Amino acid sequence: MSIEGGCYCGAVRYRIEEEDPPCYACFCTDCQTRSGSTFALTLPVWRSKFVVEGECVTGARTLATGAEMTIHCCAECLTGLYSENDQLPDLAIVRAGTLDDGSGLVPAAFMWTRSKQAWIALPENARSYETQPDHPAEWMDFLELGRRPQ
Ligand SMILES: [Zn+2]
Ligand SMILES: [Zn+2]
């Protein structure tokens, strides 16, 4: 079984060859700006199990951590589909709203609750971080990616 998704116009399609990738929500102000919304819901997936078909254009940004982030968008409709972070080179960070069916997603973690808008209530006993883990390894562990086969 694989999970499929794509952009708004259909020119770019992708396939995640994993059963149950983790998903997290981030309320940081960068994610708010980038998504044009209140938070980003994303799935970190192994780059080796992520297949993209169609033409993307990219944008780059240096994060506060010093990491270089590359955002991949459909070249036709400019829907942002996924990003890559040079400090986490084995991962693609897929935007959950571009899945064909994201109805079953449950976030494993909530990041940057410090800048969350007050009206958003998190599920009870949610794993949350006021900001985010300091190091990529800690972040991987937080998402239980360290325990997953690559
Ligand atoms: Zn498109
Ligand atoms: Zn964020």
Describe the structure.
With 150 residues, this protein is mostly beta strands. It has one domain: glutathione-dependent formaldehyde- activating enzyme (gfa), CATH 3.90.1590.10. A seven-stranded mixed beta sheet has the order 6-7-8-9-4-3-10. Strands 1-2-5 form a three-stranded antiparallel beta sheet, with no helix packed on it. It is globular and about 40 Å long. The site of one zinc ion has 6 residues, from helix 1.
How is the topology of this model organized?
Blueprint: E1 3-6, E2 13-16, E3 24-26, H1 29-35, E4 40-46, E5 50-53, E6 56-62, E7 68-74, E8 80-85, E9 91-95, E10 109-111, H2 136-142
Parallel strand pairs: 3-10
Antiparallel strand pairs: 1-2, 2-5, 3-4, 4-9, 6-7, 7-8, 8-9
What does the oligomeric state look like here? single chain
CATH fold description: glutathione-dependent formaldehyde- activating enzyme (gfa)
Which architecture per CATH? Alpha-Beta Complex
Low-confidence stretches: none
Mean pLDDT over the residues: 91
What percentage of the residues does DSSP assign to strands (E)? 25-35%
For CATH, the homologous superfamily is named as: glutathione-dependent formaldehyde- activating enzyme (gfa)
